Each structure stands twice: as structure tokens, then as C-alpha cells.
């Protein structure tokens, strides 16, 4: 599969909106860290050692049935923008994009499976599925991992489990994470409590692009931090319980906002709709946050459901590297803001106007005796 083909077809998780849990869960991800027992780990390996490990690993990965007609490329053969596009699609990490020497990535056609070779570890195996489906993602990646283990000798210790470059990944070597859309908790100023509660029980809460990234578009990744001393199933079950509780809190927060601050919610959703439909300059941060509010409007029934485009896909298409590929040239930040606004106007032109309740349903009426007509 060519790079252009990869870009032409969006990942399954980007178009799986109908599988989201009540508009809260966007995607579920399982990632495994693995190393070969008789090769120097990538972080300490010299260039020729990294190439030797790559030459051993790549054929085994490409031969997987799941990778039939997939995308396989060494990172040093991709441009800086191409690598950034893969980061924006969550197919490689920022760390791998910045250290391409002796590195490669193999991706299946649906982009539900990507395997990074010579990132921090020899193998970073990742599966992303739409909606709240950690069990399905784990079963899938476990089959892939078992197939690779028959061909490659993993570094494993009976006491410490799978050996990894970073001690925090020892044991299962597994990170399970769920991407959540939490505008209700953000707007009601409860998100801080949720993050603190997750941290207290050994979970990490990060932004849209994982560790070190900002939580934009009201999107948060919740994942396990401990990988040693627990089985894979135990980790998944504990994370599932927390996610289920977070979903309930988010839906309750949305309901309360609509009961207590309906005018504020409708105003923000209406402004987001207007900005996205008609603005001619739009920064990345502003676009992400406005799309989040539009998604909230659809989930709450204030904007009719729209089937022409996935909002999850738009979150990727408005990122800097995707915009520059679209324009087929390097763009300054100011130019990207103009191209981004044009793209949003085009993509969202068929979105129906918000279906807001009338003022008799509780919104402020400037023509009523209680309204201040001089404001």
C-alpha cells in the first residue's frame, strides 16, 4: 500500500462514531512493548546495531496475515511532513518521528494495527478500535503478538516479565488506553476532580496525542501506569470500571448543564456552529475546541446528526501536516489558519443549523419585560 492510499482511506476508529458509548468514548487502544533477547535495545544501540535488528524484525512483521497489502516504510525514507501525518493519525509516536535512523513502521489497511520498529523498544505493537472495546482490541493484538513470538525471541524474565527500555513498561509491557470526549465535565469544572481520582488509583490522564500533549477538543486519554504485578486482563478490567464510571459522570454533567445552564450551553454550541461554518481564519486550538462543542450539540440533540463526514476524521484533517499535504506546499502558521478555515467551511456546509428550543422553553428573551433592551 502506498502512502497516498493510506491517506485516502481513514482509519476505522475515525469513522466509527456510531460505536461510541453515548457520545463519550471515541476509541480504545492497546499497545505492547517488546524487545529481542539478543539485540541491543534501540535506546543504546549504535546505527549498525539498529539496522541489524530492523533487518531481523521487518520480514516477520510484514509476513503477518493482518499486514497483507499493508503499508511498510522505513522512517528515513519519509519526509518530515509525511512522518508528522502519521503522528497526527496516531500511527507512530512523536519520538519515533524524531529518531528515524534504523526505524520503520508497518500498518494494516484499516489502520487498526500499526507496528513501530526501533522506537524506544524494538517493537511497539498498537491496536486502535472505535468506541469502548478494550477486550476486542486486546484479543486482536494478543493474536498478533503470539504470531510474532513464534518468529522472534523476546527478552523475557520470569520475575520481571517482558524486558523494556523504560522500567515503567516492565511486566506485561502493555498500555491500555481509552480516548474520551468530556465536554460536560470540562464545562462544569469537574474535570480536575476526575483526573485526580484517576491518578490516585494508578491511572494516567493525558491529552489527545498522549504523554506531554495538551488536552484539546475536550479529549482525554485514560491509561494504566502500572504494567508490573498485574495480568493483562486485570489491567483491562480495572480500566474498564473507571471508564464506565467516567461515562456516567460525563452524561450526568451534560444533563445538569442542560437543566441549570441551558442558555450558556446553547450559546456556546451556536457560536461554535457559526464560527466553523463561516470563519475565514481558524487556529488549530480554536478549531479543535469548536468541533468538540459541535459534537456535544449533536450528542445532546441540539444539532441534527450529520452523516456526510466524521467529526473524528476532521480532527485529523485540520492538523498542520494534513493541511500542508492538502495544499501540496509548506505553509506558515498564518497560512494554515486560512486553509483550515476554508476546509471547515467546505466540509461542514451541509450540517443543519442547530435546532434550539424556543425562548418559551427557558432561554433569555430580549423582548420580554424582564430583558434589558439597552444591553
TrEMBL record:
Gene3D superfamilies: Glutamine synthetase/guanido kinase, catalytic domain
Reaction(s) this enzyme catalyzes, per UniProt: L-arginyl-[protein] + ATP = N(omega)-phospho-L-arginyl-[protein] + ADP + H(+)
Region (Disordered): 346-375
Biased composition (Polar residues): 365-375
GO annotation, biological process: phosphocreatine biosynthetic process
UniProt: ATP binding residues: 27-31, 90, 124, 175-179, 206-211
GO cellular component, one term: extracellular space
PROSITE patterns: PHOSPHAGEN_KINASE (PS00112), PHOSPHAGEN_KINASE_C (PS51510)
Source organism superkingdom: Bacteria
Keywords attached to this entry: Allosteric enzyme, ATP-binding, Kinase, Nucleotide-binding, Transferase
Activity regulation (record text): Appears to be allosterically activated by the binding of pArg-containing polypeptides to the pArg-binding pocket localized in the C-terminal domain of McsB.
PANTHER family per record: ARGININE KINASE 1-RELATED (PTHR11547:SF38), ARGININE OR CREATINE KINASE (PTHR11547)
Function of the molecule: Catalyzes the specific phosphorylation of arginine residues in proteins.
Family label: Belongs to the ATP:guanido phosphotransferase family.
Protein name stated in the entry: Protein-arginine kinase
Gene expressing this chain: mcsB
Amino acid at each position: 500500500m502506498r502512502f497516498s492510499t493510506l491517506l485516502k482511506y481513514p482509519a476505522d476508529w475515525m469513522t466509527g462514531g456510531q460505536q461510541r458509548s453515548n457520545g463519550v468514548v471515541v476509541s480504545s487502544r492497546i499497545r505492547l512493548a517488546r524487545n529481542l533477547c539478543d539485540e541491543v535495545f534501540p535506546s543504546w544501540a549504535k546505527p549498525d546495531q539498529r539496522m541489524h535488528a530492523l533487518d531481523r524484525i521487518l520480514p516477520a512483521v510484514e509476513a503477518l496475515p493482518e499486514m497483507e497489502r499493508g503499508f511498510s516504510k522505513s522512517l528515513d525514507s519519509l519526509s518530515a511532513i509525511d512522518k508528522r501525518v502519521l503522528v497526527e493519525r496516531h500511527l507512530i509516536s512523536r519520538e519515533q518521528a524524531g529518531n528515524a535512523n534504523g526505524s520503520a513502521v508497518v500498518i494494516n489497511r484499516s489502520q487498526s494495527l500499526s507496528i513501530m520498529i526501533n522506537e524506544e523498544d524494538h517493537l511497539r505493537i498498537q491496536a486502535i478500535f472505535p468506541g469502548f472495546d478494550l477486550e476486542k482490541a486486546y484479543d486482536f493484538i494478543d493474536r498478533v503478538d503470539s504470531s510474532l513470538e513464534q518468529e522472534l525471541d523476546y527478552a523475557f524474565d520470569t520475575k520481571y516479565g517482558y524486558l523494556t527500555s523504560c522500567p515503567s513498561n516492565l511486566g506485561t509491557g502493555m498500555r491500555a488506553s481509552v480516548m474520551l470526549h468530556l465536554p460536560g465535565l470540562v464545562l462544569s469544572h469537574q474535570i480536575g476532580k476526575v483526573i485526580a481520582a484517576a491518578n490516585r488509583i494508578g491511572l494516567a490522564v493525558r491529552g489527545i496525542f498522549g504523554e506531554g500533549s495538551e488536552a484539546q477538543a475536550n479529549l482525554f486519554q485514560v491509561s494504566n501506569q502500572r504494567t508490573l504485578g498485574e495480568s493483562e486482563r486485570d489491567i483491562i478490567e480495572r480500566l474498564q470500571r473507571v471508564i464506565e464510571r467516567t461515562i456516567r459522570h460525563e452524561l450526568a454533567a451534560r444533563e445538569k448543564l442542560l437543566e441549570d445552564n441551558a442558555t450558556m450551553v446553547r450559546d456556546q454550541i451556536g457560536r461554535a456552529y457559526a464560527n466553523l461554518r463561516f470563519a475565514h481564519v481558524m487556529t488549530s486550538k480554536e478549531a479543535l475546541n469548536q468541533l468538540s462543542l459541535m459534537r456535544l450539540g449533536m450528542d445532546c440533540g441540539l444539532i441534527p446528526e450529520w452523516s456526510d463526514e466524521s467529526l473524528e476524521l476532521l480532527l485529523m484533517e485540520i492538523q498542520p501536516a494534513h493541511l500542508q499535504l492538502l495544499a501540496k506546499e509548506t505553509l506558515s502558521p498564518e497560512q494554515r489558519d486560512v486553509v483550515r478555515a476554508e476546509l471547515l467551511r467546505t466540509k461542514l456546509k451541509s450540517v443543519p443549523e442547530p435546532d434550539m428550543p424556543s425562548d418559551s422553553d427557558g432561554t433569555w428573551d430580549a423582548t420580554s419585560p424582564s430583558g434589558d433592551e439597552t444591553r
